[in-house]
Amino acid sequence: MEKARIVVLTGAGISAESGLSTFRGNGGLWEGHNIQEVASPQGFAKNPDMVLRFYNERRRQGKTAIPNDGHKALVNLEEKYEVWIITQNVDDLHEKAGSSNILHLHGELNKARSVTDESYVVEIEGDINRGDLAPDGGQLRPHIVWFGEEVPKIEDAIEIMATASLVIIVGTSLVVYPAAGLVHYAPLETPICVVDPNKPELNSEREVFFIEEPATTGLPKLVQRLLAEA
Questions:
Q1: Distance set, CA 107 to CA 34, 95, 153, 159 (Å)
Q2: CA 165 to CA 192: how far, in whole Å?
Q3: Residue 106 designated active-site
Q4: Is this model's pTM higher than 0.90 or not?
Q5: Does residue 98 come out as left (phi exceeding 0), alpha (psi in the -120 to 50 range) or beta?
Q6: What is the model's pLDDT at position 156?
Q7: If we measure between CA atoms, which residue out of 61, 78, 97 comes closest to residue 215?
Q8: What residues form DSSP beta bridges with 85?
Q9: pLDDT in tens, 71-111
Q10: Residue closest to 56 by CA, chosen among 139, 129, 143, 5
Q11: How confident is the model over 43-80, as pLDDT tens digits?
């Protein structure tokens, strides 16, 4: 029998519980940096060394982070459901936990791409430095979708969301578009469950359930219930 498809939209809140900092919780600063300085094409053009150093530090930090009970609960959900994770996070905690189907909307810290050919994307282990070039001669940059750039995988995410029998939203403020608008592409009869201690605004006529808890406690409870009902 075909498994029901659950689509999970995750944001920085689930990673924060593994010790990774968020950039929306501290007055527009991310690790002390103005977001536009480190997460925009203009910032990279102005000071590439600083931007590369910033993401090198994030990459090193990410390597030591471990999945929390929220990440692990989503893996358990695959016992009886087809689970797709659409994440706004650039870390690899969902991969480390063992989830099977993951779409990174905003890129991945452990990848780099050429500034002159966006299709050239490579896995990286260490730092990216000025002078590290792609085969086309373009400087390598973090494979991150910065503010003002298109989100290349948004169409794939819309297609996945359109087939959801249940949508779970975890740890996202739902203020960054186009990701925040994804829930509107789910079928009208599809219920939505939000797991977040800070109850985000959700303008929807759909059936919405709120679990006002962190991912580490709220997700295991939700998953246990869903597995019992399957």
A1: 20, 14, 9, 18
A2: 9
A3: yes
A4: yes
A5: left
A6: 97
A7: 97
A8: 8, 102
A9: 999 999 999 999 999 999 999 999 999 999 999 999 999 99
A10: 129
A11: 999 999 999 999 999 999 999 999 999 999 999 999 99
Phi-psi region at 146: left, alpha or beta (left = phi > 0; alpha = psi -120 to 50): beta
Whole-angstrom Cα distance, residue 88 to residue 173? 11
With CA atoms as reference, report the closest residue to 69 among 228, 227, 218: 218
Backbone angles phi, psi at 16, to 5 degrees: -60, -30
Active-site residue among 94, 104, 106, 143? 106
Structure tokens at 33: 């940096």
Q: Give the whole-angstrom CA distance, residue 118 versus residue 9.
A: 25
Structure letter (DSSP) for residue 135:
T
**Structure token digits, residue 1:** 């029998």
Joined together, the tokens standing for residue 45 give: 């053009």
What is the pairing mode between strands 33-34 and 102-104? Answer: unpaired
Strands 192-195 and 29-30: unpaired
Q: At what angle do helices 215-229 and 69-76 cross, to 10 degrees?
A: 10
Cα distances from 7 to residues 14, 34, 44, 107, 211, in angstroms, run 16, 32, 34, 19, 17
Burial (CB < 10 A; 0-12, 13-18, 19+), residue 223, is buried
